[in-house]
Amino acid sequence: MIQSMTGYGKAAVELPDKRVNIEIKSLNSKALDLATRVAPFYREREMQIRQEIARRLERGKVDFTLWIEKKNADQTAAPISQEVVEAYYNRIRQIARQTGIPEPSDWFACLLRLPDVTAKNDTQVVDDDEWALTYQAVKEAIDALVAFRQQEGQALEKKFREKIANIAALLTQVEPYEAERVGKIRERITDALTNTLGAVDYDKNRLEQELIYYIEKLDVNEEKQRLANHLHYFVATLDSGIGQGKKLGFIAQEMGREINTLGSKSNHAEMQKIVVQMKDELEQIKEQVLNVL
Predict the structure, then answer these.
(1) Which residues are CB-neighbours of 7 under 8 A, at least 6 positions away?
(2) Helix 128-197 vs helix 269-289: crossing angle, to nearest 10
(3) Domain count, the chain
(4) Domain identity same for 224 and 184
């Protein structure tokens, strides 16, 4: 079963002092294009997260976010260092006296903007038990995204099979017009010669040879056979499992070449209408195959 590259997953883990939220989403891309936003507290584990995502998802433009919600509001406030504030205050007053520069009118606004006055307490190390719970939540979010991809893949596969069946049905409609086309070509060339040359005698054997040569150049049996083979190969590739997106894209390109050649050789209004319908069905396949893993 094929998978889509579009997906979304989320998970969360409740810890004594906080809630860790994980969100991951993906879109189609030729390779794995991974962007991560991880809370500073878990930054040291980011490489492990990236390796797990790369192992599980293979391809796609993937956005991963891990953020923390503190349960105790007091813990979210950045601590203020009284010693640093006092040192800055005394130094600024000393410089003001020596240089004559006026002292700040709002001391707190001035001091709280200076370096090292406030500092987030993000330097603590994540213990193994907490990380085990968080990492499990990361895996659950990835599992949810993979399940989403599988669901989308089922819908894509159904669409592909429907479009391939439509092209195969249109291909069978070409056959009745082929014999009719040959007769019309022969009649058109003969009438043109009669109208042009009138009563002038011409070599009918040579005309027959030229007609055969011309009609052989317009023969579409090879194109029909190759297109039928590509249709079967596309379905067989669908049945072979995940990771076939690029191959399906290549097969669709080959189908397009045969349909285009069929159209250029058709030289018949009804056949050309069928070719246009085939192109419409194939275009829808090409649009969607870009999203297959």
Answers:
(1) 25, 26, 60, 145, 146, 148, 149, 152
(2) 170
(3) 3
(4) yes
Q: Which of 78, 69, 152, 86 is nearest to 121 (CA)?
A: 78
pTM comes to: 0.72
Asked if the structure places residue 222 within a domain, the reply is yes
Task: Note the pLDDT tens digit of each residue in 49-105.
Answer: 999 999 999 899 999 999 988 876 555 566 777 888 888 889 898 898 898 888 888
Structural domain span for residue 89: 79-111
pLDDT digits (tens, 9 = 90+) for 158-172: 999 999 999 999 999
Residue 286, C-beta contacts closer than 8 angstroms, at least 6 positions apart: 249, 252, 256
CB-CB contact of 32 with 60 (8 Å): yes
φ and ψ of 291, to 5 deg: -95, 5
Do residues 201 and 272 share a domain? yes
Spatial separation of the C-alpha atoms in residues 22 and 64, rounded to whole Å: 8
* Same domain flag for 191 and 264: yes
Kindly report the backbone phi and psi dihedral angles of residue 111, in degrees, each rounded to the nearest multiple of 5, phi listed first.
Answer: -70, -35
Are 164 and 68 contained in the same domain?
no
Question: Are the C-beta atoms of residues 292 and 245 closer than 8 Å to each other?
Answer: yes
Answer whether residue 184 is part of any domain.
yes
Residue 221 falls inside a structural domain: yes
| Rounded Cα–Cα distance for residues 134 and 39 (Å) | 12
> Do residues 36 and 50 lie in contact, with contact meaning Cβ atoms separated by under 8 Å?
yes
Residues 131 and 240 in one domain: no
For residue 236, being part of any structural domain is answered with yes
